[in-house]
Structure formats: structure tokens, C-alpha cells
What we know:
By secondary structure, the protein is mainly α. The protein has helices spanning 2-30, 35-75, 80-94, 100-105. Helix 2 (35-75) packs across helix 3 (80-94). The radius of gyration is 18 Å and the shape is elongated. The chain starts with a helix and ends with a helix. The model has no long low-confidence stretch (mean pLDDT 92).
Amino acid sequence: PYRIFDDCGAAFAMGCLGGAVFNAIKGFRLAPPGMKNRIRGMATTVKVKAPVLGGNFGVWGLTFATCDCSLIHLRNREDHWNSIMAGAATGGILSIRGGPQAALVS
């Protein structure tokens, strides 16, 4: 139970930090010429897009950790197969919004 929330928080933090770096570079490059405009564009892009990527990573981390902990409980062992099956289940769960065909292919 605590591990699920720890993994969700860590995934959110990684997504926010990675999103901030990636979107800072992207915002700087796509802003109009001039250092002041580029800094403003960079800050705006990071402010708008980094939390979205962090949220997406947080959802992925929450789903993966829930599947992993559930498999550990059901199988009564902690090995690499739990992570493999949890990854497959997470891909299916997250792609179910695209329909049953997308969930099965994922």
C-alpha cells in the first residue's frame, strides 16, 4: 500500500522534472527571437506542459505499482515475473481508452 503511493509520487516527480527540461528546451527554441521572449516562452511552456506530463507519468506509476503489488499478493512471491506481467497489464489498462482491440494489441 505505501509502495503504491511512493511509486506514484516518484513517477509524478520524474515526469515533472523531465517534462520541465524537455519543454524548457522546446519553448526556448520555438519562441520569437530575442532573449526576453525566449525566456518568457520557455517559462510559459514549462508552466503549462510539465504538470501534464507529470500527471501522465503519475498515472502510469500508480497503475504499474498497483498491478505489481496485486501480483505479489496473489502469487505469494516477489520475482521478475511480477514486473513483467504488471507492465503488460499496465499497457493494457492504459490503452483501454482506445477500445478493446487497442488494449489487446498493447
